[in-house]
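Inverse folding, one chain.
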């Protein structure tokens, strides 16, 4: 048998528990609303960054296209390397001089493609050591047919 006093205590405890539950629910709702706002802000920021990235990629492509046009329009042979000595670009004149097609040598290490004879400077070592710019370094390589070709880097 439950007495009136016990019932009142039970009701009071139930009311307190319900009030605590309600307060926690309100706190969770506020936190959830803040989280939604933060997600919306970050989504907008991400969309802006994506637009900036698209713009930068477009500009980079325009610049690359321009540089390729310049390289193809000059009569000197040009082979571009990255700082690791990997071939990144070769123009038509250089393809004619070396006997290699671009698709054969792009992305390959220069020293794997061209045999450097012990004549002149090793400009690849200069490139990979980061000593830039390179101007007037003379050496001799073998082209695809095995002929000696003097070059100036």
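Residues assigned per position:
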């Amino acid at each position: 048998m439950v007495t009136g006093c016990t019932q009142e205590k039970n009701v009071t405890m139930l009311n307190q528990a319900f009030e605590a539950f309600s307060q926690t629910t309100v706190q969770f709702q506020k936190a959830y609303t803040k989280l939604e706002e933060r997600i919306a802000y970050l989504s907008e920021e991400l969309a802006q960054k994506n637009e900036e990235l698209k713009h930068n990629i477009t500009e980079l492509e325009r610049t690359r296209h321009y540089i390729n046009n310049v390289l193809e329009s000059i009569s000197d042979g040009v082979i571009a390397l990255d700082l690791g000595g990997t071939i990144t670009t070769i123009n038509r004149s250089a393809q004619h001089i070396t006997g290699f097609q671009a698709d054969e040598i792009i992305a390959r290490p220069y020293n794997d493609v061209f045999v450097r004879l012990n004549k002149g400077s090793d400009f690849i070592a200069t490139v990979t050591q980061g000593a830039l710019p390179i101007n007037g370094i003379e050496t001799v390589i073998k082209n695809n047919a095995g002929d000696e070709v003097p070059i100036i880097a």
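The chain has a mean pLDDT of 86. The beta strands are 79-81, 87-90, 115-120, 138-142, 148-152.
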